[in-house]
């Protein structure tokens, strides 16, 4: 045996040992669990502890499964509610492989599990939704709406029926019913939640029409309120104006009347000293002010101031 | 294995065996070093798995690990503020951010309100990975699960509110409720995410209904306008009327003052004259009379004097002609 041949043998042996070693040791990740099968037959339970593990090389095979929570997302289903409203319901769920052995035996892989879950959850969703009125699926409590002006006009609060079950509990029902079946294929279901609810096209159109008519009602109310309020303000203005004007008139007349009375008193007091003399004076003043150059004066000679025209005797 | 190389040496006689050894050692050391030294940036945290098992987390800085696949590194950006958009997608962020609304994002936005109406709600959620271990190892597809959770939670909260609350008065409150509920759900799912903010963006009625919602706004404006106009008329006319009223009253007061003063003046004048008259009534009378006549007569241009016995003077006068002139 020369040196070269020995070296080749060493290399071959080293490779052989490496291959055996690699086939003996296997890794389990944090996210994995492993089932060991021997000629297709599962051996022992699931290995869930992460790290390096050993198995019989070549004879035993590793089968990796997810250990984490997985998601299931269903297709949207068109379902009639109890009150005959057609809606699209879209749900999601969280599940995990709780028993990898059973899982491996019954559904083989995740694809198989997903399709089983489709059947189960979709079916239970259908059952649950069909058993309740739409409002029960939409709402989850009987919380009173904050009353806005718009809503007061529409009186919506009175039109919304009380709910008894609600969205959360309906989802819970779907979960419970589905969970009864899933352990059969090694799956634990944790949550089922209603992701989306939408009206079916035709229903949606009707809903939109209703919404439009509601808004139109509100708009009409606002418009008439505007008219009403502005008429009220105008009325108030008219009233105020009349009040101001009439009060001013009254006051003015009172002031004038008082002054007139006062003046009358002053005149009377003075002229009462000699009423005859007053009328004499006043008459003379009247002559001065009323006779002008357009006036014809016809005087008889017996007028007092002409008596000297005829004679000078006393 | 290095011991095997000298056998190959035979075919490459020109290079000294020592040099080859050195190169091989250097390469191996380099490979090992490259596999063991790693850097964590300030916003990240490093998660180290040894043979798939979680062993430790490392903070930002330079670190070493076992090379050759013994220890594996996963970097998780724990400090980075992450964001998800619902109901729209930002296509080009920037100063003038562009948005795109796709059928899928539209589907995300449509939701039923508690009064069985429909609203379109767009929102964003900002979050951080709080617990890298949970985020990586407790849940697969944490990202898409987080999206589902968002949709379910926001719809649930919106489903308990009226369309008016969702669109107007309740926006902030609803977003806040949704945020808290989303955080609770994250904790329950052990998804390792901390929700920092959930903000409602555009919240609208569906497109076919929008015009009627606008109409309500317009009618509200119209109402305000009508009321304001009425008030402005009021405010224009009332002060003016008040002023005019004041004027009327002041005028009356002026009249009163004048009237009283005049009367006092007249009266005092009369009294003064009367006092003197009372001392010599006869002569004063005569004087006053004659003075008046003296005042009047010169003003009158047409004076006719006739004798008291001659009664028929009128026929002689052509009155009409004089008047014509």
Characterization of this structure:
The complex is a heterodimer of chains A (314) and B (325). Chain A has 314 residues and is α+β, with helices and mostly antiparallel strands. Chain A has 4 domains: 3-66, no CATH class; 70-199, Band 7 domain (Tetrahydropterin Synthase, Chain A), CATH 3.30.479; 203-232; 275-310, no CATH class. Chain A is 54% helix and 21% strand. Chain A is built from 10 helices and 10 strands. In chain A, strands 6, 7, 8 and 9 form a 4-stranded antiparallel beta sheet that branches. In chain A, helix 3 packs across helix 7 (167-179). In chain B, helix 8 packs across helix 9 (281-296). Among the domains of chain B are: 2-76, no CATH class; 82-205, Band 7 domain (Tetrahydropterin Synthase, Chain A, 2-Layer Sandwich). Chain B has helices at residues 5-9, 17-36, 103-109, 132-137, 142-158, 163-169, 171-189, 210-279, 281-296, 319-324, and strands at residues 37-40, 45-50, 53-58, 61-64, 71-76, 82-86, 89-92, 98-100, 110-112, 118-129, 193-204, 302-306. Chain B is of the alpha+beta class and 325 residues long. The termini of chain B are far apart. The chains are: A alpha+beta (314), B alpha+beta (325). At the A-B interface, helix 1, strand 6, helix 4, strand 9 and helix 8 of A face strand 9, helix 5, helix 6, helix 8 and helix 9 of B. Strand 10 of chain A pairs parallel with strand 12 (302-306) of chain B, so a sheet runs across the interface.
């Amino acid at each position: 045996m020369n040196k070269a041949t020995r070296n080749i043998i060493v290399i071959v042996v080293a490779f052989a040992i490496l291959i055996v070693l690699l086939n003996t040791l296997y890794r389990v990740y944090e996210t994995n669990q492993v089932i060991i099968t021997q000629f297709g037959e599962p051996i022992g339970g699931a290995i869930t502890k992460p790290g390096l593990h050993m198995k019989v090389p070549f004879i035993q095979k590793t089968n990796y499964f997810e250990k984490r929570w997985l998601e299931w997302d269903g297709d949207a289903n068109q379902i009639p509610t109890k009150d005959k409203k057609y809606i699209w319901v879209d749900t999601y769920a969280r599940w995990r492989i709780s028993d990898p052995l059973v899982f491996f035996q019954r559904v083989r892989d995740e694809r198989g599990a997903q399709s089983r879950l489709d059947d189960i959850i979709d079916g239970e969703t259908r059952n649950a939704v069909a058993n309740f009125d739409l409002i029960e699926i939409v709402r989850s409590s009987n919380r009173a709406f904050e009353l806005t002006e718009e809503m007061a006009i529409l009186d919506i609060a009175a039109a919304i029926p009380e709910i008894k079950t609600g969205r959360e509990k309906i989802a819970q029902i779907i979960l419970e019913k589905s969970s009864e079946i899933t352990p059969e294929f090694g799956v634990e279901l944790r949550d089922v939640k209603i992701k989306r609810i939408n009206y079916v096209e035709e229903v949606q159109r009707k809903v939109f029409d209703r919404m439009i008519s509601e808004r139109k009602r509100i708009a009409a109310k606002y418009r008439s309120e505007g008219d009403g309020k502005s008429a009220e303000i105008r009325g108030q203005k008219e009233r105020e104006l009349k009040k101001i004007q009439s009060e001013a008139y009254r006051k003015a007349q009172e002031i004038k009347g008082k002054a007139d009375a006062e003046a009358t008193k002053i005149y009377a007091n003075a002229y009462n000293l000699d009423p005859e003399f007053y009328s004499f004076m006043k008459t003379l003043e009247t002559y001065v002010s009323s006779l002008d150059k357009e006036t014809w004066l016809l005087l008889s000679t017996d007028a007092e101031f002409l008596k000297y025209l005829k004679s000078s005797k006393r | 294995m290095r011991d095997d190389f000298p056998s190959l040496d035979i075919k490459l006689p020109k290079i000294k065996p020592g040099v080859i050894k050195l190169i091989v050692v250097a390469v191996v050391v380099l490979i090992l070093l490259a596999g063991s030294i790693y850097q964590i940036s300030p916003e990240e945290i490093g998660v180290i798995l040894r043979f798939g098992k979680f062993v430790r987390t490392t903070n930002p800085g330079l670190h070493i690990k076992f090379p050759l696949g013994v220890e594996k590194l996963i970097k998780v950006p724990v400090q980075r503020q992450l964001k998800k958009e619902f109901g729209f997608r930002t296509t080009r962020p920037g100063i003038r951010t562009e948005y795109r609304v796709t059928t899928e994002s539209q589907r995300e936005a449509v939701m039923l309100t508690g009064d069985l109406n429909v609203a379109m709600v767009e929102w964003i959620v900002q979050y951080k990975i709080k617990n890298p271990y949970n985020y990586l190892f407790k849940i697969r597809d944490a990202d898409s699960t987080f999206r589902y959770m968002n949709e379910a939670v926001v719809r649930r909260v919106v489903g308990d509110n009226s369309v008016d609350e969702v669109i107007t008065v309740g926006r902030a409150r609803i977003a806040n409720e949704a945020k808290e509920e989303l955080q609770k759900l994250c904790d329950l799912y052990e998804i390792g995410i901390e929700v920092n903010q959930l903000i409602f963006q555009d919240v609208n009625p569906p497109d076919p209904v929008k015009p009627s919602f606008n109409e309500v706004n317009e009618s509200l404006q119209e109402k305000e306008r009508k009321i304001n106009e009425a008030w402005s008329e009021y405010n224009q006319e009332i002060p003016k009327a008040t002023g005019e009223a004041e004027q009327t009253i002041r005028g009356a007061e002026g009249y009163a003052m004048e009237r009283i003063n005049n009367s006092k003046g007249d009266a005092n004048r009369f009294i003064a004259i009367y006092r003197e008259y009372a001392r010599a009534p006869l002569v004063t009378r005569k004087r006053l009379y004659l003075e008046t006549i003296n005042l009047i007569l010169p003003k009158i241009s047409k004076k006719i004097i006739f004798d008291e016995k001659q009664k028929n003077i009128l026929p002689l006068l052509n009155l009409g002609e004089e008047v014509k002139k």
